[in-house]
Amino acid sequence: MKHTTLRDLDVSRIGLGTMGMSFGYTGAGTDDAESIRTIHRALDLGVTFLDTAEIYGPYVNEELVGRALKGRRDEVVLATKFGLISHAGGGPGHLDSGPANIRTAVEGSLKRLGTDHIDLYYQHRVDPHTRHVGLSEAGPDTIRRAHAVHPVTAVQSEYSLWTRDVEERVLPVLRELGIGFVPYSPLGHGFLTGTIRSPEQFDDTDWRKNNPRFTGENFQRNLALADKVQAIAAEVGATPAQVALAWLLARGEHIAPIPGTKRVARVEENVAADGIELTADQIDKLNNLPPAAGEHHDEEQMQMIER
Predict the structure, then answer these.
(1) What is the tens place of the pLDDT at every residue in 6-63?
(2) In terms of pTM, does the model score above 0.90?
(3) Of residues 56, 59, 121, 122, which has the active-site annotation?
(4) Is 81:56 a contact under the CB 8 Å cutoff?
(5) Does the annotation count 159 as an active-site position?
(6) 221-279, pLDDT tens digit by residue?
(7) For residues 105 and 91, what is the distance between their CA atoms, to the nearest angstrom?
(8) What is the per-residue pLDDT for 133?
């Protein structure tokens, strides 16, 4: 596994997002043993970058990661997030990045993760009343203000072949300031793998069931995009997921995507993308894919993302 740096933080070029093991997707939380085996397999394959958050569950995903890392904590750069739970009474879904809330959040995360330190600590969403910490889904102006207070190591935002909002305004600022970038959902919440062919594959606990890109005419239009990725994968002799990740890795240095999975076979597939080199023609075709139909979050979620 090759490595890159997020500012001066050394990480494997492909990380592992753990949210879907416990939260938000069909089958989440039903097989913790397999999820732990998946984390262990990722470590064995050279993945050194794990991503979780207190809101995932809430709390149970951090507990799962803590169990998986028992005896292996020193092998990983461990990232988690705060700010989407108000511990003073508002609860999950209420923005709170005040000092008292951060103290409560970090103490809880340390306990659940079974560690005495967190390597990379994100503000999960920007709290308009508190703007002095590391960032997830932050816009360029906030990134500049935060970086002026203290060097920001990394910014995490959704980025993939079908969600490219950050390219015009955010990525140039990160390159200018030397800040690392961590794309989450680099496989389009599974859509770019080519394995999702019908909304009927989602149960009622799966947030994608009502996501604009996974419903109605948008779903059918987006199947054509997934098929184009599949066609390039056939040229490469790889899977669509590997092509989607290889495209991200070719976007430049200091980028470390965190594809999420709860299965050993998938983590093996994702990690193998590190060895795939796309031709200039293939990258050009991927760069010019049509944009996905529909917003990548519902209206309420979009309001929590700073542009």
Answers:
(1) 999 999 999 999 999 999 999 999 999 999 999 999 999 999 999 999 999 999 999 9
(2) no
(3) 56
(4) no
(5) no
(6) 999 999 999 999 999 999 999 999 999 999 999 999 999 999 999 999 999 999 999 99
(7) 12
(8) 45
Residues in the chain: 307
Tell the residue number behind the tokens 């796309």, with chain if given: 278
pLDDT of residue 303: 64
How would you write the chain as a 3-class SS string? CCEEEECCEEEECCCEECHHHCCCCCCCCCCHHHHHHHHHHHHHCCCCEEECCCCCCCCHHHHHHHHHCCCCHHHCEEEEEECCEECCCCEECCCCCCHHHHHHHHHHHHHHHCCCCCCEEEECCCECCECCCCEECCCHHHHHHHHHHCCCCEEEEECECCECCHHHHHHHHHHHHCCEEEEECCCCCCHHHCCCCCHHHCCCCCHHHHCHHHCHHHHHHHHHHHHHHHHHHHHHCCCHHHHHHHHHHCCCCCECCCCECCCHHHHHHHHHHHHCCCCHHHHHHHHCCCCCCCCCCCHHHHCCCCC
Q: What is the pLDDT of residue 278?
A: 98
pLDDT above 80 (res 136): yes
138 vs 156: CA distance, rounded Å: 8
Q: What percent of the chain has pLDDT over 70?
A: 95
Residue 79 makes CB contacts below 8 A (sequence gap 6+) with: 49, 50, 51, 52, 118, 119, 120, 121, 122, 156, 182
Instruction: Record the tokens describing residue 178, joined without a space.
Output: 């030397």
Structure confidence at residue 132 (pLDDT) = 39
Cβ neighbors of 273 (< 8 A, separation 6 or more) are 14, 238, 241, 242, 243, 245, 246, 249
